[in-house]
Automatic annotation (TrEMBL):
This is Flagellar biosynthetic protein FliR. It is a multi-pass membrane protein. GO terms for biological process: protein targeting. The keyword rRNA-binding does not apply. It comes from Sulfoacidibacillus ferrooxidans.
Length: 262
């Protein structure tokens, strides 16, 4: 016979699963139906509940009853959302890089709907996001997110999550990494466009009759897109590095949540 405590533990597992699936990359995509996310969360919850004993899932000294359940429910939801968000930071990095490229090339005035977030986005930001999504799936990045959920109970069993300064430090470091990677991806094109603009400025002084805006826009566009195409193989290597960075950030977050220190 299934006891009340077993049901409450299963619900807590389900809430953590829901939290990560609704906020993680790919799974949290708005194009993925809500019923699919809930079904997958339920399936994962059954696997976790069946593969681990309650003593492994729940921290020692934690009593689950009607009084503590709702506090633990909120805590587990926050753990799941935190894991999903930290995994999403690498996607924010490539989108940021694409936005920088669009500003330099001249695409920033064009607005498209991002397929993942249903928010306005620029063309290259969309392109890089879609390419990285495909690459992420191809190198089992999505599977790594699921694995992080399955292993999270070894680091952060139910009832011991520490949402303190160490967790904030992990997210701060992830944010700094986000911006540095974005600039690193866009830097070669930004430098080339900068040198092109200097050359156009010199040419306009030498030939005052030349319409710099009329001539410069197609030149900038051509150079920018050509460099993006040339650098695509290097971008693939960087994407592989991004998946490794995601795994490291997830591990750091689990350590911070479980012990209070990253």
């Amino acid at each position: 016979m299934i006891g009340t405590t077993s049901i409450l533990i299963f619900l807590l597992i389900f809430v953590r699963s829901i939290g990560i699936l609704f906020s993680a990359p790919i799974f949290g995509n708005l194009q993925v139906p809500t019923i699919v996310k809930i079904g997958l969360a339920l399936y994962l919850s059954v696997i976790i509940n069946a593969s681990e004993t309650h003593s492994m899932l729940v921290a020692s000294g934690i009593t689950i009853n009607d009084m503590t359940f709702f506090v633990l429910l909120i805590q587990e939801a926050l753990v799941g959302v935190a894991l999903g968000l930290i995994a999403s930071f690498v996607f924010y990095a490539v989108q940021f890089a694409g936005a920088l490229l669009d500003i330099q090339i001249g695409f920033s005035m064009v607005s498209l709907v991002n397929p993942g977030f249903s928010t306005p986005s620029t063309p290259l930001a969309n392109l890089v996001y879609i390419l990285f999504s495909l690459f992420f799936i191809g190198v089992h990045g999505a599977a790594n997110v699921i694995l992080a959920l399955l292993q999270s109970y070894r680091y952060v069993p139910i009832g011991v999550a520490h949402f303190g300064g160490s967790v904030a430090d992990v997210f701060l470091h992830a944010t700094i990494t986000l911006f540095s990677i974005g600039v690193e991806i866009a830097a070669p094109v930004m430098l080339a466009i900068f040198l092109t603009n200097i050359a156009l400025a010199v040419a306009s002084r030498a030939v005052p009759q030349m319409n710099v805006f009329f001539v410069g826009l197609p030149i900038t566009l051509f150079i920018g897109l050509a460099l993006v195409g040339v650098l695509m193989p290097a971008l693939v290597d960087l994407m592989r590095e991004l998946v490794d960075i995601m795994d490291q950030q997830i591990n750091s977050l689990l350590l911070a949540l479980g012990s209070g220190s990253a």
